[in-house]
DNA sequence: CTAAATGTAGGCCATGCGGTCGAAAAACAT
DNA sequence: ATGTTTTTCGACCGCATGGCCTACATTTAG
């Protein structure tokens, strides 16, 4: 059983008894919950309904999770982790910051295209961070790292002489913003935007916006 | 009294008896509801809580609105109308498509900065469109017009020879996406992004991305 | 084989919700 | 003043939800 009212204040941090079936069930529940949320909205995704989707009893969820809140928290974590893992692997395969930046954008859109439910659910969940504090916390633990990743690419590119002189932090926010903004429209209506075209437009635009007019410094970068 | 169960199927379409106090109350309720939603989240913004914020009884809301759904609908309408009116007026003051485009972006950010609650509430509400159909409807009636506006500017600019050759629809989606994406980060954490800097970065980027390398055709456009 | 643990089911409950109702109050017309 | 209409109030209802509890099933350990 998952730890609930342990003497210490710690919540479900005890991942000790990770029975195979335990973790499997958790993943299964998280998966079905994402599907349910994406299909019916977070508000309609009650424990009963999620349980229905999985084909189990409601209390099974209560057994494996400390409550609805923890389930949603885990969903968020899972969604972000899955996306980030994919993007980072793609970026790392490239050498040279311009290529890495392009890979970041393209990977973001590629992952979207194949995991629509993830993002529909994500947008639904975004609206559930009631307090400003919760919003800030989410931003700090989940959103900011993405910007930092871009920022590091940009900064490195500047050092290499591939990129012109700009404020890495601001441009990183702008780039991530553009990606998420297009994603948002696509979540509202799949047919409203063409992901591939937007991706192409964005990569071209960011290339233009970051390129160093003086050309690169050392070896990397051919100014393609 | 607002029409509720009129013989005909029409809902609250009878805006006939727009008593001064009636419309005043509605605006008041909408305002307070936005504040409540922005402060506590849509889920926590129950009729009781909103009524508390206004300082009236719960049933007053039920009296002036046909239900919670209609209230939220009106909130969405009000939020978008307010924002669009501001942006459009700014755009129309400019002559020349490059200037209009810049005005669109700058006005978007300027309005944000002065109406944070509006956007926090908006993001919360975004997550409440349960079904895919509701999402599509929102996109069609509220979101798409914004893109169309940008699109018309871009298309006109191409005709004038101020802009290069691109797909107006796609670039419009990209521009609106970039604005909303940055807005989203700012909603999560006010301190996470610098709106003014992002606005500057975006205007510069879009200018670069739209400019016609061959220069303008007729009179308008100085290639500043 | 048996006993302890782990996992599951279904019913139960307190809570808070949106919405309704009739009476009271306020605004208005005459 | 008086009657009429518009607006407000507080109590109330039915309902869905998240969480809890007890009993039952299944797996694991000795």
TrEMBL record, chains A, B:
Residues 46-65 bind DNA. Residues 23-83 form the HTH tetR-type domain. Keywords: DNA-binding, Repressor, Transcription, Transcription regulation. The keyword Flavoprotein does not apply. The keyword DNA-binding applies. Pfam families: TetR_C_6, TetR_N. PANTHER family: HTH-TYPE TRANSCRIPTIONAL REGULATOR RUTR, TRANSCRIPTIONAL REGULATOR-RELATED. This is TetR family transcriptional regulator. The lineage of its organism: Bacteria, Bacillati, Actinomycetota, Actinomycetes, Streptosporangiales. The gene is rutR.
């Amino acid at each position: 059983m998952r730890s609930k009212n342990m003497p210490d204040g710690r919540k479900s941090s005890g991942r000790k008894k990770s029975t195979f079936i335990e973790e499997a069930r958790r993943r299964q529940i998280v998966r079905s919950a994402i599907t349910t949320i994406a299909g019916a909205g977070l508000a309609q995704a009650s424990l009963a309904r999620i349980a229905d989707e999985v084909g189990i009893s409601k209390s099974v969820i209560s057994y494996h999770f400390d409550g609805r809140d923890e389930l949603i928290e885990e969903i968020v974590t899972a969604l972000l982790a899955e996306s980030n893992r994919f993007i980072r692997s793609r970026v790392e395969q490239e050498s040279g910051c311009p290529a890495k930046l392009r890979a970041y954008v393209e990977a973001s859109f590629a992952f979207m295209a194949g995991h629509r439910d993830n993002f529909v659910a994500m947008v639904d969940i975004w609206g559930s961070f009631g307090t400003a504090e919760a919003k800030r916390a989410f931003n700090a633990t989940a959103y900011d790292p993405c910007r930092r990743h871009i920022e590091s690419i940009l900064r490195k590119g500047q050092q290499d002489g591939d990129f012109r002189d700009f404020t890495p932090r601001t441009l990183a926010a702008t780039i991530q913003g553009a990606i998420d903004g297009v994603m948002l429209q696509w979540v509202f209506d799949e047919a409203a935007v063409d992901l591939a075209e937007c991706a192409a437009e964005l990569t071209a635009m960011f290339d233009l916006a970051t390129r160093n007019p003086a050309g690169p410094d050392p070896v990397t970068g051919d100014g393609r």
